[in-house]
Predict the 3D structure of the following.
Amino acid sequence: MRKMRLYEIFIQRQRSSFENGYYFESAWFTYSILEDRAVSMLRQSGEIGNLRMLGPKIAELKTRLPNDAYLRGATLDGLIIDEMYTWKERRNILMHRMAEGTISIEDIDKEIFLIANVGIKLIVTVQPTLRGY
């Protein structure tokens, strides 16, 4: 129950950050929640192993999906996994472009707004999986 309360706070802060224009902070909360949901789904469908980053966790979920009724149900036949992957990739691309200095501040602002906005919607989609603590 303690963890459920923590994620209620994360979700509230994710939305509040977005509403107040702190899009990077909102995306940070999204990433944290997605990482936790991936770990939970992996545990529900077997072992998690030594997977450390979100990308490999998502890849493992995709591998398990065809043979796992729990995952098919919890992820709307993989739709949520695909959405998690797309969100993660978009965020990673932005971070790499920022580190390389190949994106303008204006484009950073536009892209992080979109990433944070999609993150808000994505967390609403993965919230039903929060039951499995």
About this structure: The chain has one domain: 2-131.
